[in-house]
């Protein structure tokens, strides 16, 4: 049978950027980290396609995204870096510490100034929470993608 494809990658990239831009996490000390959105200088691998064959629809998506973050520490320092979330696809899931073949992967990038104080160490200690809040935003974008590509119901 004939396969029809519709590409949603451009829309999905905009949705991801908007969702990540609003992410923030407050540390026990009172410091706060904010995700500023997609890091434009980094290569963003974002694809989303619906394929229809013999009346059956399938959504395929794959993400490897890098976002910028800024942290205002309780000691008044401003730290900056990037966060990368990858191995995100229709056949993987958010599962911290899970199998790298089936789980989303997260890495936090930062400059050498991070470790110049206890407030920087707190950011490292909170990595799993930073992963969780950014993953939640990606999950919301994926749910929105599913809504967007769902066939419209005829009356």
Protein topology:
Layout: E1 3-7, H1 9-21, E2 24-26, E3 32-38, E4 45-53, E5 56-72, E6 78-89, E7 105-110, H2 118-125, H3 127-149
Antiparallel strand pairs: 1-4, 2-3, 3-5, 4-5, 5-6, 6-7
Helix pairs in contact: 1-3
Question: What does it look like?
Answer:
The chain has 155 residues and is of the alpha+beta class. It is 28% helix and 38% strand. The chain has three helices and seven strands, in the order βαββββββαα. Strands 1, 2, 3, 4, 5, 6 and 7 form a seven-stranded antiparallel β-sheet that branches. It starts with a strand and ends in a 6-residue tail after the last helix.
Helix content: 25-40%
Question: Gap between N and C termini, in Å?
Answer: 28 Å
Oligomer: single chain
Radius of gyration: 18 Å
Low-confidence stretches: none
Strand percentage lies at 35-45%
> How many strand units?
7
Listing every helix as H and every strand as E from the N terminus to the C terminus, the arrangement reads EHEEEEEEHH
Provide the descriptors you would attach to this structure in a database record:
155 residues, 3 helices, 7 strands
Short description:
With 155 residues, this protein is an alpha+beta fold.
